[in-house]
Amino acid sequence: MSKLTRREVIKLAVITGAAALLPQQIHAFSEILEKLPGFQKNPTKVPPPVKGARYGMVIDLGLCIGCRRCSYACKLENSVPDTISPPYIMVLETDPMRFTSGDLFNKKFEEKNRVNYTRLRKDMMYMPVQCNHCENPPCTKVCPTKATYKDKDGIVLVDYSKCIGCRYCMVACPYNARRFNWFEPHVPAEMVNPLVPVRPHGVVEKCTFCVHRTRLGRTTRCVEACPNKARTFGDLNDPDSEISKIVRSERSLRLKEGLNTGPHIWYLTREKSKPMRWYTPLPPPANIRGVLG
Amino acid sequence: MKEMISTLHGYATETIKNTGRNFYIYILVLLLIIGWGFFNYTQMFITGHGLSGLSDVVPWGIYISGLAFFIGSSAGATIIGLLIYGFGREDYKPIGTRAVLLALFCIFGATQFVMADVGVPHRAMKVPFFLRNETSMFFISSSSYMGFMTILGAELYFALKVTLGIGGEKAKKIAKWLGILAVPYALFVVHTFTGTIFGVVIARESWNTPLLPIHFIASALASGVALVIIIAITTSKLKGKQIVSPETYHHMGMLLGAFLTATLFLDLTDYMIILYGGTAEGLETWHIISRRFGFLLSLNIFGMMIAIGILITKWGKTENGLFIASLLCVAAILAYRINLVIVGQLVPLYPELGELQYIPTMPEISVALAIVALILLLYSLFSWILPMEKKDLKTGTIH
After folding, report:
1. What is the DSSP string of B216-255?
2. In this model, does residue A106 exceed pLDDT 70?
3. Measuring CA to CA, how many Å separate B217 from each of A252, B101, B189, B284?
4. Percent of chain B scored above 90 by pLDDT?
5. Does the distance separating the beta carbons of A94 and B352 come in below 8 Å?
6. What ipTM, to 2 d.p.?
C-alpha cells in the first residue's frame, strides 16, 4: 500500500478539524448576526429579574386543605388551556400512615390515584406540588437548546421560541412539574391573560412563579387564592422577609432533597389547626393523560 | 469521480434490467407502510402529539426506544469494519460494504425517530448549529450522530471506490482507517452518549446508573452483529449462493454469543441489585417490569438465554440455527430497550399518582413502523444499485 504524503495528511487533518468545528463556527456566526439591527430574535417577553432577589415559597401543610383553589387560580392567571391536565399545580392527597411504597405485596400501589379525590378527608394530608424552581435544576442542564433557563432571581423559565419539544426536561424533572402542549391550545379570548400569551402546541411549559407579577412587586396568584393562607412567597435573600423568617424558624422539608436539586419550595409539617375552615374542593383535573383511575 | 459515476451508472442499469418482479412488490409494500406512517405523522404535526399515547407522566415512548435500538445496531454493525481492517479478517470483506450501509441507514433511521418525537421538528433541525447547550446529553448525542453519519458516508464512498478498483492504494488506505476509526467512535462516543442520555437522569432510579452506557455498548455489539448475520444470510438466500464462508458464520456466531453473554450478565445483575436493594423506586420498577411488562421481560431474558443455548450447540453452527439465534437476539434487545425507556418512566414520581400507563396508539405505531420501513427501503435500494463486492461487478445481478 502506498503511504499518504505529508501534504495529504495535513489536508485530511484540516478538513476533519473544520468539519468537527463547523457547528461551533455557525453558532458563533449566528450570535454575531443576532446582535445586528433587524436580526434580533423576539424572546419570550418577561420583565427583567429583580436585582439581588432570590425567590422562594413556603407551603404550610397544616393549613392546606386540598381545595384546589390555588390550582384553578394559577390556570386562569397563566392562560393554561384545558388540554393541559393537570394544570401547573397538582394537589396530592397523601396518607400520613403509609410507611413504604413500592412493596411487592403492597396492594395500595394498585389502588386508585390520589389526585382525583372529590371530597376532603380530615385524616389525610394534602400537598400541592409544582415546579420547585430548584437551585440546581436538572431540567436546565438537559435542555439541548437552553430554552429552559434559571434567571438571576432563581426563577426557572422557558423560552418558548427556543423549545423544540423533546421533553427531556420533563423526563429529567424529579417533581413532574412540566407540562407539554399535546394539542393546539384553545383558551376563550375573554379568559386569556394579556400578560401571559397562550403557548403553541409542541412546546413545554410550567409554573413561572407568576413572573409577570412577582417581578413587578406583587405576589403569585396561588398565594392570593389560598383561602387558609397556607402559602407564603418572597425573597429569600432579604433576611427580614416573611419567608426568610419562616424558613429559619420553622420545621420544614423540601421534596427529594437527596437529589441535591435544592428546591425553592419549603413544606411546613405542622399539624392541622382545629378551628380551620374546610371548603368544598373544586373538581379534580379532567382527563389526566397517563394517570389511571 | 466521473469514472466512478459512469461505472456505477452502468452497474445500476444492468442490475435494474435483471431484477425480478418480487423485488418491486417488496419495495411497493415498504412504500405503502411509509405512506401510511407519513400520513399519520402529518396529522400529528398539525394536531399535536396528543394523537400518541404519550403523556406528561410518560413523555417518552416507542420513538425513543426506537432511537436507542437503532443507534445500538448502527454502532454494533461497524465492528465488521474493525474485523476486516484491524484484525485482517479478509473473509468478512463480502459483507463489509453491506455492514457500512446498514450502520449508515440505522443511524439515519434513529435520527428520524427523534424527529418524529419532538414537538417542533423544524426547530429541532437547528440544534447542533444555532441552538446548543453543551451540558445536554441530547445535544452532545445529536452532534455525535452527525459526525458518525459523516464518517460512515466517507467510509461507504471509499469502500465503493475500492470495490470499483478506482483510487488505487490511497482509497484502500483511507477506507481502512475510516473503518477502524468508526468502531471506537461508534462505541465510545455515539453509543456511550446515547446511554448517558438516560444514565444522567437522577429523577429515574432505574436509569441513573454509571453502568448504563456499558450495558448499552454490550447490547449494541450484540444487536449489531445479529443484524449483520441476518442481512448476510438473507442476501445469501436471495442470491442463491453463499456470500461468506461457513467458517465466517461460525466466527460471527461466537462473537454474537460473547456479546450476548455480557449483556445477559449485566441484565441479571441489574435486576438482582434492584431486588436486593429494596428501594421504593427499585421495587416498583420490578413490580411493573415483572407483571405488566412480564412478556417483554421474558423475551429479554429467555430470548437471550435461548439464543446463547442455540449458539453453543451444533445447531448454532448451521445457517438456520444462527439465523434464529440472531432474530432472538434482536427481539431480546429491542424488548430490553422498550422496557428500559418505558418502565423507567412508569414508576410514579409521587406514589400518590398511583398506577401510570402508556399504551402506544395506532398513529404512533404506524409512524414507528414507517421509520423501520424507511431503513429497510434505503438499505434495499442502495444494496441493490450499488456493487457490494467485486464479484457483483462481473454479474450485475443480485435479486
Report:
1. HHHHHHHHHHHHHHHHHHHHHHHHTS-SS-HHHHHHHHHH
2. no
3. 44, 20, 10, 26
4. 59
5. yes
6. 0.91
- Does A59 contact chain B (CB < 8 Å)? no
Window 331-370 of B: residues touching A by CB (8 A cutoff) are 345, 349-358
Question: What is the tens place of the pLDDT at every residue in A166-213?
Answer: 999 999 999 999 999 999 998 998 889 999 989 999 999 999 999 999
Q: Which pTM does this prediction carry?
A: 0.89
Model pLDDT, residue B18: 79
Task: Output DSSP code: residue B211.
Answer: T
**pLDDT at residue B326, rounded to an integer:** 96
Chain B residues touching residue A183 (CB < 8 angstroms): 47-48, 50
Dump pLDDT digits (tens) for B282-326.
888 888 999 889 999 999 999 999 999 999 999 988 999 999 999
Judged by CB atoms closer than 8 Å, whether chains meet at B136 and A172 is answered as: no
**Chain B contact set for A173 (CB, 8 A):** 203
- Quick check: A175 contacting B, CB < 8 Å? yes
β-strand A55-60 against A204-205: which pairing, if any?
Answer: unpaired
Q: How many angstroms separate the Cα of A52 from the Cα of each of A215, A232, A234, B267?
A: 12, 19, 13, 50
Q: Is A25 on the interface with B (CB under 8 A)?
A: no
